[in-house]
């Protein structure tokens, strides 16, 4: 039995190989499976556990159900010097989004800005995966997506017409950590609620309310209530803006057209997303951007903390060192997830990645 942190850790490459093999067992070609597995594990490496390997069950279910195309032809459907649209051909969302990110960076180098949308995508993991690369290359990045299921009503309403509609930003900075900010437009991402359900834990009050308007804290009852937007009507407005730019603009789903990718494994989700890259050189600042941003960041970190508060941190602080440590020592996954990966391994005809993990129950 795994009883210590060291014993619980799984080498990064071992986990990548397992995820890749699981995807290949559902007909995903080797190279695509490696690309997606690498990004999924990268999510866990950078601490986005709710959107990493935890999502494997959902991806395999959609591959089994036919809603996700195992052999997509990811193409550039339309482009100008600075813009483009990627058609993901209903394949795994990581493939379309990584293509969009790379094309946006290429266009930013040529035109100062690259904005690339995605249509016919699928869930692609955390948006941070598609903006950190820009910052590491000295560019600014932004990405957003229409959520993969509707869990939010319009502000003051009761019909589920909005998702968590996440957005992420990145910027270069001097030092080890770029600025990387990734958030849902709801108080909590649905992935966090699903992990609490898997672990048998309750939600804090303020994440969801029931149709009676009262707090909902049992994650098993999540379908009975609503996720709450950040900042009330402000979060509602931001979520709509993201839906327009990531959904409507790309000819992708928004509003009642959104398919719940967990409950419906056979339909095309037509998930809409976008990635942007911006080159500071186009504004005459170039390499000076990172230094200027870092000076302001340092001022913020030096701010005296309020009583009882930790020192000020910037989004992305400590991520590089934590990721390096995980790459070296392996990833520690919670027991419920380890058991689930063993079940998935059996379903795929693969050896259990955690052979010493006790059976559930």
Describe this structure as you would to a colleague.
There is one protein chain. This protein is an alpha+beta fold. It has two domains: 5-186 and 229-295 and 315-348, Ribosomal Protein S8, Chain: A, domain 1 (2-Layer Sandwich), CATH 3.30.1370.60; 187-228, Wheat Germ Agglutinin (Isolectin 2), domain 1, CATH 3.30.60.50. Helices cover 36% and strands 15% of the residues. The protein contains eleven helices and twelve strands. α2 crosses α3 (30-45). The radius of gyration is 20 Å and the shape is globular. GO terms for molecular function: oxidoreductase activity. Belongs to the LDH2/MDH2 oxidoreductase family. Its EC number is 1.1.1.-. Residues 304-326 are annotated as: Disordered.
Brief overview, please?
Its EC number is 1.1.1.-. 36% of the residues lie in helices and 15% in strands. It is of the alpha+beta class.
N-to-C SSE string, H for helix and E for strand: HEHHHEEHEHEEEHEEEHEHHEH
Based on DSSP secondary structure assignment, what is the total number of beta strands?
12
Question: What is the CATH level 1 assignment of the largest domain?
Answer: Alpha Beta
For the termini, the CA-CA separation is 15 Å
Output the number of helix runs.
Answer: 11
How many structurally independent domains?
2
Structural class given helices, strands, pairing? Answer: alpha+beta
Q: Report the principal-axis shape.
A: globular
What do we call the CATH topology of the largest domain? Answer: Ribosomal Protein S8, Chain: A, domain 1
User: Please, what is the CATH homologous superfamily of the largest domain?
Assistant: Malate/L-lactate/L-sulpholactate dehydrogenase, NADPH binding domain
- Strand order within the widest beta sheet: 2-3-4-11-5-6-7
Strand content: 15-25%
Low-confidence stretches: 1-6
**Helix content range of the residues, please?**
25-40%
> What Rg, in angstroms, do the CA atoms define?
20 Å
- CATH architecture identity of the largest domain: 2-Layer Sandwich
Major sheet summary line: 7 strands, mixed
How confident is the prediction overall: mean pLDDT?
A: 94
């Amino acid at each position: 039995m795994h009883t210590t942190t060291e014993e619980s850790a799984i080498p990064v490459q071992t986990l990548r190989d397992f995820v890749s093999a699981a995807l290949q067992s559902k007909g995903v070609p080797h190279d695509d499976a490696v690309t997606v597995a690498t990004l999924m594990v990268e999510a866990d490496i950078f601490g986005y556990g709710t959107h990493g390997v935890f999502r494997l069950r959902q991806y395999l279910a959609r591959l089994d159900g036919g809603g996700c195309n195992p052999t997509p032809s990811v193409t550039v459907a339309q482009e100008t010097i600075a813009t483009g649209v990627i058609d993901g051909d209903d394949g795994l969302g990581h493939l379309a989004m990584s293509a969009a990110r790379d094309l946006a960076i290429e266009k930013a180098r040529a035109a100062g800005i690259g904005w690339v949308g995605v249509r016919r995508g699928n869930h692609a993991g955390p948006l941070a995966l598609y903006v950190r690369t820009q910052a590491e290359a000295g560019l600014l990045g932004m990405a957003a997506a229409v959520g993969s299921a509707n869990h939010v009503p319009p502000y003051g309403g009761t019909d589920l017409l909005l998702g968590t509609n996440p957005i992420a930003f990145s910027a270069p900075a001097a030092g080890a950590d770029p600025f990387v900010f990734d958030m849902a437009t709801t108080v909590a991402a649905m992935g966090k609620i699903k992990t609490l359900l898997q672990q048998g834990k309750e939600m804090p009050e303020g994440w969801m309310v029931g149709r009676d308007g009262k707090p909902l804290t049992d994650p098993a009852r999540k379908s009975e209530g609503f996720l709450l937007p950040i900042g009330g009507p402000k979060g509602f407005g931001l979520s709509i803006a993201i839906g327009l730019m990531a959904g409507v603009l790309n000819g992708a789903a928004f509003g009642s057209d959104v398919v719940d990718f967990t409950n419906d494994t056979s339909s095309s989700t037509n998930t809409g997303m976008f990635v942007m890259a911006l080159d500071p050189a186009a504004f005459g600042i170039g390499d000076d951007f990172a230094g200027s941003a870092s000076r302001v960041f340092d001022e913020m970190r030096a701010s005296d903390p309020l009583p009882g508060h930790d020192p000020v941190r910037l989004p992305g602080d400590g991520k590089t060192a934590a990721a390096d440590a995980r790459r070296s020592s392996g990833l520690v996954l919670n027991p419920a997830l380890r058991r689930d990966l063993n079940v998935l391994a059996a379903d795929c005809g693969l050896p259990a990645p955690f052979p010493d993990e006790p059976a559930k129950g």
